[in-house]
Design brief:
It holds the Pfam family LRR_6. InterPro entries: Leu-rich_rpt, LRR_dom_sf, NLR. The structure is a single chain. The protein is built from 13 helices and 13 strands. Helix 4 links the parallel strand 3 and strand 4. The longest helix is centred in the first third of the chain and has 14 residues. The radius of gyration is 28 Å and the shape is elongated.
C-alpha cells in the first residue's frame, strides 16, 4: 500500500481519505507507524471504512511509538464501542505527541461537541447518556446537536431534554435524528410543552423504518387528543421498535387513550408499557382492572358495590378520578364509608374530574 522506504524517509503528511482501505489496510499502516524511523506527523483516514478493530490497531501503534504523529483524522468511520476512548486516552498520555484527533464529520457536530464538553466537563463522544435537562442546552443550536447525534462517532443511547424550551422546529430536528441510523434508544422530553404540533414532528421520525427508538417519555408536554392520534398512527405505521411510551400529565380527550391502548392488543406492535397515570392513580387503575376485568380508563361508569374500600384505596381512586386520562363520570353503589364519601365529594369541585353522578 505504502512503500516502507518512502514511509520511513522524510514523509511528514499522508492523506488516504476516501479510499476503502478498511481495517486490514489500517493494520498494515499501523505496523509502519510503530517503526522508530517513522517521522510522519499528519495522517488522514477520512471515510476509509475503518471500524473498531482499526482504531485499536492505531492506538496500539501510537502507544508503541508515541513521539512523532501530531494530527490524526478519522472522520466518517465507525469506531464501535471503544474506538474513540482508545485513541482519546492518548491525548492524556504525557509521552504521546498527538495533539489533534479529528472524529466528527461536520463543523456543526464539532461545535456541538466542544460546547457540550465545556458544559459537562467530558466529551459527549465518551458518553452513552446525555442529560441536557433544564438550561444545560443553553445557546446550542438544535441542528448542531442533531449533527453530533447522527455522527457515527456518537455512541449516545439515551438523551434527556426535560424542562427544555423545545419548539416545533426543535422537534423537527429530533425527528431527523430518529430518521437516521443512530443507536439512540431512549429520548426523554418530559415537561417540555411540545404541544400537538411538536409531537406530530416527532411522529415523522417514529414512522421511519430506520428508527430504533425503544423508549419515549412525553410526560407533561401539553399534548391533546390530536397528538395521541398522531402517535397511534405513527406506531401502526412502524410498530416494530417502541416498547415504552410515557404520556402522564397530558390530556387525551375522548378517544386518545383508546387509540393507543388498542396498540397493546396488536400482535405486530412491540409496545409493552403505555404509561398514562401517576403512581397512586395507576395503583387504582390496576386494582379496578383486576376486579371488573376492564381498564377503567375506557369506562364511563364504575360499580364497586361488592368491595369494601379502605382509606388508602379511596385516595387512590380519587387520584384516578382527577387524572385527565380518566373518563369516568358515574360511580354506582360503591361502599365508600363516610370518610371516603367526603373525599369523593370534594372531587366535584375539581375542574379536571369528570365525575357527575354518585348512585
Amino acid at each position: 500500500m505504502v512503500d516502507k522506504r518512502t514511509f520511513h524517509s522524510i514523509l511528514r503528511e499522508l492523506d488516504l481519505s476516501r479510499n476503502q482501505i478498511g481495517d486490514s489496510g489500517v493494520t498494515e499502516i499501523s505496523s509502519l507507524l510503530r517503526n522508530s524511523q517513522c517521522t510522519l506527523q499528519i495522517l488522514r483516514f477520512s471515510d476509509c471504512s475503518i471500524t473498531e478493530e482499526g482504531y485499536k490497531a492505531l492506538a496500539s501503534a501510537l502507544r508503541s511509538n508515541p513521539s512523532h504523529l501530531i494530527e490524526l483524522d478519522l472522520t466518517g468511520n465507525d469506531p464501535g464501542q471503544s474506538g474513540v476512548k482508545e485513541l482519546n486516552d492518548l491525548l492524556q498520555d504525557g509521552l504521546c505527541s498527538l495533539k489533534t484527533i479529528r472524529f466528527l464529520k461536520s463543523p456543526a457536530a464539532e461545535e456541538a461537541c466542544e460546547y457540550l464538553t465545556g458544559v459537562l466537563g467530558k466529551s459527549p463522544l465518551l458518553l452513552k447518556e446525555l442529560d441536557l435537562s433544564g438550561d444545560k442546552l443553553g445557546d446550542l443550536d438544535g441542528e448542531k446537536l442533531s449533527a453530533l447525534l447522527m455522527d457515527s462517532h456518537s455512541k449516545l443511547e439515551k438523551i434527556m431534554l426535560n424542562n427544555c424550551d423545545l419548539t416545533e422546529k426543535s422537534c423537527s430536528v429530533l425527528a431527523t435524528v430518529l430518521s437516521s441510523k443512530t443507536i439512540l434508544k431512549e429520548m426523554n422530553l418530559n415537561n417540555s410543552r411540545l404541544l400537538d404540533s411538536g409531537v406530530k414532528e416527532i411522529c415523522e421520525g417514529l414512522k421511519n423504518p430506520v428508527c430504533e427508538l425503544k423508549i419515549l417519555k412525553l410526560s407533561d408536554c401539553s399534548i391533546t387528543e390530536e397528538g395521541y392520534k398522531a402517535l397511534a398512527s405513527a406506531l401502526r405505521s412502524n410498530p416494530s421498535h417502541l416498547i415504552e411510551l410515557d404520556l402522564t400529565g397530558n390530556d387525551p380527550g375522548q378517544s386518545g387513550v383508546k387509540e393507543l391502548s388498542d396498540l397493546l392488543q396488536d400482535p405486530n406492535c412491540q409496545l409493552k408499557t403505555l404509561r398514562f397515570l401517576g403512581p397512586a392513580a395507576d395503583e387504582a387503575c390496576q386494582y379496578v382492572t383486576g376486579i371488573v376485568g376492564k381498564n377503567p380508563l375506557l369506562l364511563r361508569e364504575l360499580n364497586l358495590s361488592e368491595h369494601e374500600l379502605g382509606d388508602t384505596r379511596v385516595n387512590q381512586i380519587a387520584a384516578l378520578l382527577q387524572d385527565k386520562h380518566c373518563q369516568l363520570n358515574t360511580l354506582i353503589e360503591n361502599k365508600l364509608g363516610n370518610p371516603g364519601m367526603k373525599i369523593i365529594l370534594t372531587l366535584f369541585e375539581n375542574v379536571q374530574c369528570r365525575l357527575e353522578k354518585l348512585k
